[in-house]
Amino acid sequence: MLLASLNPLSVARGTDIPNAATIDGVTLSRSDVLGAATAVAERIARADRLAVLARPTAATVIAVTGCLIAGVTVVPVPPDSGPAELAHILGDSGAQAWLGEAPPGSELPAIPVRLHARSWHSYPEPADDATAFILYTSGTTGPPKGVLLSRRAIAAGLDSLAQAWQWTADDVLVHGLPLFHVHGLILGVLGALRVGSPLIHTGKPTPQVYAAAGGSLYFGVPTVWSRVVEDPASAQALRSARLLVSGSAPLPVPVFERLAELTGQPPVERYGMSETLITLSTRFDGERRPGWVGLPLAGVQTRLRDERGGQVAHDGEAVGGLEVRAPTLFDGYLNRPDATAQSQTPDGWFITGDVAVIDRDGFHRIVGRASTDLIKSGGYRIGAGEVETALLGHPAVAEVAVVGIADDDLGQRIVGYVVARETVSETDLIEHVATQLSAHKRPREIRFVDSLPRNAMGKVQKRQLG
Predict the structure, then answer these.
(1) d(CA 343, CA 237)
(2) DSSP 8-class letter at 147
């Protein structure tokens, strides 16, 4: 029952939350959210799918919640979408209108979202298997694919995270993440509404605004935490927080260690993707190991397979393709039965496309994408993340991305793209890695760059390198 908490029934009992959501300078109580969202629901009840230009605003929160109340599928659209991407998302999803703001030049009609409108009409809970969202993936291998997420999957995912993180209504969640992805929208908005914890969306997630927010639970991508540790005063202001959560990309080990030093607590890392929601996480009351994303959440099963489909040992060293089976799995790709079929094994496991290591205690370390982060060099299988961590351990290295580039002799040679904070030679960095890792894992080449290409969630776009 997704809306058993999102709807929130506590308002009807007189237990309102005066600061349920603060975003874009607007603070909404829980009754404000419910009343305005129900007014939206009355206007869209006969719709099937609506597009929401997912800017970090109160109108976005109301629009999404109104759709959930009415049982209308939400198509979140990145505000910075280019014309081709926008046309693809609208055409592929079949969105009938914009709910709230429409981008300039759009031919779809727009339904206004009025923050001060109120309705207390009661709607029946939609079916658990109804599609709540169509989230579009980044489309690194073609046009973005629409990921179908059911109400049941979202509820299962949020409840398992609340359990793992001991997330309760006593928390205050702070984040400044985009609202068109799982991290910022589903975890960062719906999670807070479902749990009943106040949300503060900071807009731009700078160290200073995070420090001033006074929350107990913080969400951030690695880029956010990297900037926080470069501002010790802001980092130390987070010592009163209960939990610092990092996700959407691997957190460099040096950032993990520095964050733990400055705040007094190691961050929680987790792993997931649009198709699976969050499946792995370290726990509030469990071990937090740098470079590792923890254990499967409630109801989640994982396994590793090699290229031939054989089992890979859970010994903390062997690398294999990560497959997942869980109640949080998506219902397929919209209009893409071929891609849906290719993403599943014959016995019903989802093929994540990531490669990972699992130790004997069930702890997981994500090596990266099989297509870009598993390097086959000189007959060895090498995880790019391991080499990146070694390079980041050098004081002159600010950022790094390691890729495999085709080589006639080795198959692939290891190349490191480095953003340096001070002058350092290529030889020094290669030798540094050789002192940390096996000789075959050292980079054969270092290329110095001013910056690394990243997407809106801070993930390095390795396909643009090499």
Answers:
(1) 44
(2) E
User: What residue type is 40 in one-letter code?
Assistant: V
DSSP state of 25: T
Rounded-to-integer distance, Cα 144 and Cα 334, Å: 10
* Degrees to nearest 5, angle at CA 77 with 76 and 79: 130
Taking only the tens place, the pLDDT of each residue in 366-397 is 988 887 777 878 767 787 887 888 898 899 99
Nearest-CA neighbor of 172 among 258, 240, 98, 112?
240
- In the chain, residues under CATH classification 3.30.300.30 are 374-464
Q: What is the mean pLDDT of the chain?
A: 91
Measure the CA–CA gap between 36 and 28, rounded to whole angstroms: 10
Lowest-confidence region among 48-52, 76-80, 238-242, 305-309: 305-309
CA dihedral of 392, 250, 283, 230, whole degrees rounded to 10: 50
- Are residues 277 and 153 in contact, defined by beta-carbon separation less than 8 angstroms? yes
pTM to 2 decimal places: 0.86
Alpha-carbon dihedral angle through residues 186, 183, 258, 285, given to the nearest 10 degrees: 40
Give, in words, the CATH class of 374-464.
Answer: alpha beta
Give me Rg for the CA atoms of the chain: 22
Nearest to 144 by CA among 87, 100, 221: 87
Q: DSSP of 333-386, one letter per residue?
A: BTT-HHHHHHTB-TTS-EEEEEEEEE-TT--EEEEEETTTTEEEETTEEEEHHH
Tell me where in the chain the CATH 3.40.50.12780 domain(s) lie: 1-369
Of 262, 281, 270, nearest to 220 by C-alpha is 270
List the one residue out of 175, 195, 198 whose CA is nearest residue 185: 175
Average pLDDT over residues 194-198: 93
Q: C-alpha angle 165/239/251, rounded to 5°?
A: 60
CA angle 174, 451, 56 (to 5 degrees): 30
Q: In CATH terms, is domain 1-369 a member of 3.40.50.1580?
A: no
Diameter of the chain measured on Cα atoms: 72
Exposure string for 139-176, b = 16+ CB within 10 A, e = fewer: eeeeebbbbbbbbbbbbbbbbbbbebbebeeebbbbbb
How far is the C-alpha of 349 from the C-alpha of 426, rounded, in Å? 43
Distance from C-alpha of 198 to C-alpha of 364, rounded to nearest angstrom: 31
The type of residue at 135 is L
Sequence-distant contacts of 24-32: CB under 8 A, at least 24 apart: 24/55, 24/56, 24/57, 24/58, 24/201, 24/203, 26/57, 26/58, 26/115, 28/58, 28/61, 28/62, 28/115, 30/196, 32/115
On the 0-12 / 13-18 / 19+ scale of CB atoms within 10 A, 276 is buried
